[in-house]
Amino acid sequence: MKKWMTLLVFLPAATFAAPAVPEDTVTHVEFPNAVTVLETDSSLHVAIRGKAGDDSFRFDYTKDFGPGANVVTRQRSASLDFNLPFTPKRDRRDRQWRQKHGTFCSMGGLGFGFVSAPGAPDAMHVDMGASYEIFADLLSFGQHLRHHADLSLGLGISWRNYRMTGRTRFLKEGDRLTLAPYPDGADIDFSRIKVFSLTFPLRFRQELSRHFSYSLAAILNLNTYASAKTHYDLDGTPVRDVQKRIHPSRVTVDFMGQLQYRSIGLYVKYSPCHMLHADFGPTFNHLSAGVTLFY
């Protein structure tokens, strides 16, 4: 007959304290999460799941009885042997507290990436290596779901820079922003469009393991300000042309995918919406990729 004994360990630290570990000890585990002992007429099996500081720890011990009996021992852990600096650790008690209370509020989350402009006119050559975006989630409210997932709605800001370094510049003619060549003999620096937005991300996040997770987000952007700036020198004289009121699309939507290890992540973001109003400037979409911190 089989005998099952499952020990869920919730005792104080003093319970497991021992003056010394005997020399013939097979293994010594402090603060295991669960211990299961299975005994049959021909074998004994001990399974330990989790230990102090490592919920992924696994230890299995099997001993057969009788002549020619074997002993099989297995031990593994999915945890890595190093920690990245400036990344907070989350222990088992923290996850249990979050799951118990259901909802959460968080602050912070930064992103930096390089920007491209798919769908732009042929003359608009945005240099992705010189174009970038910076964004931050200032405040998020969320709900924990089952299976280590959560859903959150946040408030943030975004600053995007679409920069051309070729022979074409942004030039405002009347109330419309156009693409035009530089004057003959100009020493070209850059011409760029800047867009500032308030953002409202709706994000689903799923834990893949203790430290890895991914998230998918739909981000509503309220584009509150945009301007165009061009820098070049002509006959040794610096020319600085700044144009405001270039009519950005007031509301756009981004779709973002993110892969996270602890507090460091990689992301890709795409918007099928036009960044500028079609009646007042060249139309183009948004594509960016980069890194995130503290999400």
Count of the domains: 2
| Total DSSP helices | 2
Structural class: mainly beta
How many DSSP E strands?
17
Overall average pLDDT: 84
Determine the strand fraction and express it as a percent band: over 45%
Give a structural overview.
It is a single chain. The chain folds into two domains: 3-76, no CATH class; 92-293, no CATH class. The chain is 5% helix and 58% strand. It is built from two helices and 17 strands. The chain has helices spanning 13-16, 92-101; strands spanning 3-8, 34-39, 43-51, 54-64, 71-76, 103-106, 110-116, 132-145, 149-164, 168-173, 176-181, 187-207, 212-234, 237-244, 251-261, 264-271, 286-293. The strands form three sheets. The chain has an eight-stranded antiparallel barrel with strand order 7-8-9-12-13-15-16-17. Residues 1-18 and 78-90 have low confidence and may be disordered.
Question: Could you give the topology of this structure?
Answer:
Layout: E1 3-8, H1 13-16, E2 34-39, E3 43-51, E4 54-64, E5 71-76, H2 92-101, E6 103-106, E7 110-116, E8 132-145, E9 149-164, E10 168-173, E11 176-181, E12 187-207, E13 212-234, E14 237-244, E15 251-261, E16 264-271, E17 286-293
Antiparallel strand pairs: 1-2, 2-3, 3-4, 4-5, 6-8, 7-8, 7-17, 8-9, 9-12, 10-11, 12-13, 13-14, 13-15, 15-16, 16-17
What are the main properties of this structure?
295 residues; mainly beta; 2 domains; 8-stranded antiparallel β-barrel; 5-stranded antiparallel beta sheet; 17 strands; 5% helix
